[in-house]
Design goal:
Blueprint: H1 3-27, E1 33-37, H2 43-60, E2 64-68, H3 75-83, E3 90-95, H4 96-101, E4 117-132, H5 141-150, E5 156-159, H6 165-177, E6 182-185, H7 189-197, E7 203-207, H8 208-216, E8 221-225, E9 251-259, H9 264-278, H10 281-289, E10 293-294, H11 299-319
Parallel strand pairs: 1-2, 1-3, 5-6, 5-7
Antiparallel strand pairs: 3-9, 4-7, 4-8, 4-9, 4-10
Length: 325
Amino acid sequence: MPLTRLLAAAALCGAAAFASAQEPAAAYPSRAVTIVVPFSPGGATDLSARQIAALMSRDLGQPFVVDNRAGAGGMIGMAVVARAAPDGYTLGWGGNSPMSVTPHVTKSPPYDPRKAFTPISLAAISSWTLASPPKLAAGDFAGLVKLAKSQPGKISIASSGNGSAPHLLAEMLKQSAGIDLLHVPYKGEIDGVNAMLGGQVGLMFTSTPAATPLIQAGRLKGFAVTTPKRDPALPEIPTVAEVGQPDLSFEIFFGLVGPAGLPPAVVDRLAAAMKKAVADPGYRDSMKKAGVVATSSTPQEFQALLARHNERWLDVIQRNHISPE
């Protein structure tokens, strides 16, 4: 075949391939979409995903179905998303642990959280609260630092396990405030909170949704929250920046992501649907009752948040030689 005819044929094939690649994005979604939630049913993360799925189903005219795939700090579920075809029909409900913490303390993680996903939009944010039992002899953060400096290594701080976000925050607190605390890892957040309530440990960074009813009931007291602004669930508690520790500013977040390489047209369609869903009054009220703040974002804003979290958590992990064992 002459070269000119070969070039013409190649051009036609390329145009056809381009057209076929564009057609699914233009018609998206044309069938059911799965949202993988990497945690067990129940709790604010799962509740958020299910409500958003229902709202997006109504908006986009196809079922959005939640599939819970729990385990390994959320990595089992997010690995499913990372391996999925980038066509928009398998998405993930990404959050702190599987998107910025756990893979960095795992010997052979199933994905690189910085490269494996396409961010679409945040759905909600919350904070960590530095809390203690009421009997701890410190009335505020300054008093806590003073007490800890007078008893180096004597005040214990719980976490939900080695390499968990509360553990990393504890290490950052020690360095930032110049205090020595005894880290006590537990199997999960609830175990650490129960240890505080029982007086076995003195401190813990716990999720604000978990801390709020206990603080309101007087069973715990809070020293600071880790969001840049005060958490609406506990407006009386200052931020870490207000108490002189801006380096501890970290959000708890969750939102919608796809596998790497998701077509821009699909990302834009999903991001627009997410913005509309997150603005729904019923969803916002439900999140408020769960102790989190309904928050949407652009894909670029979500990408920037993920990059910041990964960079800072990885730095803490490497500097402190933290491993899950």
